[in-house]
Amino acid sequence: MTDGNITKDIVYEAVAPDDFESMIELDRYEKRSTAFDKIISATHDHFWDPLDKKYIDFDEPFDIEHVQMMPDDQIFQLQIPYVRDHLEKTGQKVRFANEMQLWSFSSILHGEQGALNLSASLCHVLKDQGAQEYAANQTREEARHVTAFAKYIKSRWGRPRPCGTVLKALLVDIISAPEVYKKIIGMQMLVEGLAMGAFATGYKYNQDPLAKKLFQLVMTDEAFHHKFGKIWADRTIPRMSEDERNVVEDWAAHCFQSLVMNLGSPQQQAEMYASFGLDPEKVVAGLMEIRSEARTRERLRESTNIFRVLIKTLLKAGLISDRTKAFYGNYVDMDELKSEGDRMVGDDIAEEGIAYLQTINFKDRSNAAAIRIAAE
Ligand SMILES: [Fe+2]
Ligand SMILES: [Fe+2]
Fold first, then answer.
1. Residue 370: closest CA among 359, 354, 357
2. Are 42 and 373 in contact (CB under 8 A)?
3. Which of 144-148, 160-164, 273-277, 280-284 has the lowest mean pLDDT?
4. Ligand of minimum distance to the alpha carbon of 192
5. In degrees, to the nearest 5, what angle opens at C-alpha 237 toward C-alphas 32 and 227?
6. What CA–CA distance (Å, rounded) separates 352 from 50?
7. Which carries the bigger pLDDT value, residue 121 or residue 305?
8. What is the pLDDT of residue 210?
9. Does pLDDT of 140 surpass 90?
10. 3-state SS string over 22-43?
11. Is residue 116 very low, low, confident or very high in pLDDT (cuts 50, 70, 90)?
12. What 3-state class would DSSP assign to 305?
């Protein structure tokens, strides 16, 4: 393949990251697509500032010692009888459950930092001025997410946990990749899709009102980021040759597997398990057991389930064919998924959040237009 960037649409035309000379071609300045104008100008409507108490107050207290943030059935480790029994017997369940939240918020924080660097890197490869302005805007939004999650972790736990090795490898891979398809599939479609699913779950179940508020504010931005990836897929994938599509399909499966492994890999947290008196080997064995059980698959049916969201995104984008259908079939019922609608999980929460932000940002203006853009 000669074109490593697989450029099929002028809006997503891409060059190598070190090819600045292409950016100063005179003809380029005369062209600017209007494809992203709406999502660029909508950024004013869903503006928020993590340092301004008018939007969110990180000084709000929460009794983290005694109140369990997420219910038992949302913590997969507590589905392992060995883990649950040990923690209940030793009176450590709340502390363990909240420690798992620290790991989860830390992954989110590292993911947000990845999104910041990735969207900045898109400015170097996307040639269209409109696409560049969109990416620069997203970079600014990811920067406020990094600040917000860093402040939340500081207020609840003091310090984040390190990034898991699998997530770290994926982030390094997509940020340094010169191919725009790797960046857009890896980040805009999968990591952003995963974020929407995880934030929707957090918004629904987290007992800390500050966490709920934070998830909703972040989702008002993320709904647009995911949409950027979807627009790329709609315009690009149908025009690819079969060989190109296969390359992209395999990349998507690789990213998906990395994210699944990162989410459910106790090997990455052996020390943490040991600190609760749990044997990491036994946790791994217990995890294998529940994975093969039907009830785990049953839980995947819930619309906020994160794997399900990702698979649906890839399916709708035409990135799952007979070659990879069986691989994803390990996680969801593919036939059932096909018949579901297009609406993205979390869109409702994001729309509500945007309406709320508009009341702060434009007290004297009634404008419902931007609320609808995220879901278009
Ligand atoms: Fe973000
Ligand atoms: Fe994002």
1. 354
2. yes
3. 280-284
4. 2
5. 60
6. 18
7. 121
8. 98
9. yes
10. HHHCHHHHHCCCCCCHHHHHHH
11. very high
12. coil
Residue list, CB under 5 A from ion ligand 1 = 112, 115, 142, 145
Residue 127 Cα to ligand 1 middle (Å): 23
Q: What residues are paired with 126 via a beta bridge?
A: 14
Q: How far is the CA of 114 from the centre of ligand 1 (A)?
A: 9
Spell out the domain ranges in the chain.
Answer: 48-373
What is the pLDDT averaged over residues 104-124?
94
Number of separate helices (H) and strands (E) present in the chain: 18, 0
Distance from C-alpha of 227 to C-alpha of 210, rounded to nearest angstrom: 26
At what angle are helices 306-316 and 242-263 packed, to 10 degrees? 170
Ligand 1 midpoint to CA 204 (Å) = 18
Note the pLDDT tens digit of each residue in 172-222. 999 988 888 888 888 888 888 888 888 988 999 999 999 999 999 999 998
43 contact partners, CB below 8 Å, separation of at least 6: 137, 141, 224
Whole-number Å distance, alpha carbon 230 to ligand 1 midpoint, is 16
Q: Where are the beta strands (DSSP E) in 124-170?
A: none
Report the separation in Å between the CA atom of 216 and the middle of ligand 2, taken as the mean of its atom positions. Answer: 13
Say how many Å lie between the CA of residue 232 and the centre of ligand 1: 18
For residues 32-37, average pLDDT: 87
**287 Cα to the center of ligand 2, angstroms:** 30
At the second CATH level, the architecture of 48-373 is: Up-down Bundle (1.20)
Ligand 2 centroid to 135 CA: how many Å?
10
Which run of H or of E encompasses 309? helix 306-316
Return the C-alpha torsion angle 35, 198, 50, 354, nearest 10: 50
Q: Is 348 helix (H, G, I), strand (E, B) or coil?
A: helix
Distance 222 CA to ligand 2 centre (A): 5
pLDDT of residue 31: 85
Q: What distance in angstroms lies between residue 141's CA and the mean position of ligand 1's atoms?
A: 7
Per-residue model confidence as pLDDT tens digits over 330-372: 777 787 777 776 666 677 787 888 887 877 777 655 545 555 5
